[in-house]
Amino acid sequence: MTRINTNVPSLIAQQRLNRSGSELQVRLERLSTGLRINRGKDDPAGLIISERLATDIKGIEQAIKNGERASAVISTTEAALAEITDLLNSIKSLTVEAANTGAVSDEERRANQLQINSAIQSITRISNTTTFGGLKLLDGSLDYLTSGLTTSTIKKAEIFGASFIGTDSIDVAVDVIASAQKGGLYLNGDNATGNDGELLSGITIRVKGPDGVRELSFLSGTPYADIVTAVNNSTALTGVEAALINGDATSGLVFRSSEYGSTAFVSVERVDKPADPADDNFNLFKYDANADYPGGVTFDWTDTNLVAATRDAGRNVSALINGILATGKGLNISINSPTLSMDLLLDETYAIDPSLAVKNFEITGGGALFQLGPDINALQQTNIGIQATSAESLGGFLVDGSIQYLSSLQDGQGNSLDDANERNDFSPLEKIVNKAIDEVSILRGRLGAFERNVLDTSTRSMQSAFENLTASRSIIRDADFASESSELTRAQILQSAGTTVLALANQSAQNVLQLLG
Hints:
24 strands, about 40% helix, five-stranded antiparallel beta sheet, 9 helices
């Protein structure tokens, strides 16, 4: 080349040197930061997806922390419930001891009562003071709020879980479709001519119920009213009660289980049966299982649904909750669905009469809401209710038609040891304490199942997602040091070679001087 105004080889060498310099700068930047993508021009599409993955990773990382914190809350709650269980077991032991009236003095019973008072106060104190970071756990703050509940239809409502997806409140409709029943056996008042309302001959009967069995003997001519009294005096031992049909001995009498439900039964059988069955005038009847329940003490003997029997079991109430068939147990109904989980204790008059109107009430809010996913929406949240565990809330058990709580075992509250001793019946106290123990145990079980099946599984799932998303983002965003160091060496060589070539290109123009002599 003999032109000197434009040194084309030098321009080419400069361009290549600049490119190798830029390449060298990129490799040095990637090796110094450890990232393949440091700015948008490095990989625009890769930058977009890596930033989205970074957002997902941050959300999942916080979701994992939320799950771990929720587990800490559950663990704190369960530890307090374990202490309450110990106190309840102590109360049960003291109650059983006091029932041994033949060997326990008044002073000892009074000392037991003082311990029961102290234990009940401790239960309420634990309920009111168990906190986590200022959040009260067992005082009912994390229970659901209801509106429209009346004790004339629903004695007690325990709501375990409710989903407020797309709504601020949940309407609940309870419709009894089949009545709760007690087991019932009926004896006609006209068991022999001229002996209406009395036994024609002396008999011995075996009365058996869910609580035990007793044999009772009666003389000839014993009025039915005396049989009713004898059976009722043993109700605490058998779980069987008796009453005159229509309030009139000539109409007969009925033996009934004292409780409702399929586990409650009554069995009455004559022990001294005559050799000839035709001579037996002690004939019992029950209502056919498919017949409407007559109410126990009011019915017509001409009813064609009566069948001969010596044993009859009760029936659980059957009801619909928001159109879903609920599980019945005596007067209790329960439902467990993804959107609503609850247990209701129905009033006796409501549970035995399907013709009564549908009962409606509302769940207006409350519960403990846990955010377990990376996105704030109802599908990644779960709600669970934690009921109050104070003495005024535990042990709700029906005693003589009214609900009695654990607090009623204190002095002057109707179910103290002295009151039970005067009545010579400690069984209501035991039933209240047993109910309280069951409630706390069930609550602990629900919280344990929630921690194991929801929190733990959610945390493991989030941890797996965190690992996979982090690995995916690393593939897109992080620098491969082996590759980058190789490219750095290449860029360094090109940079050195380019510098040398540029020097040669600049020197080549001097050869034209030889033409000028």
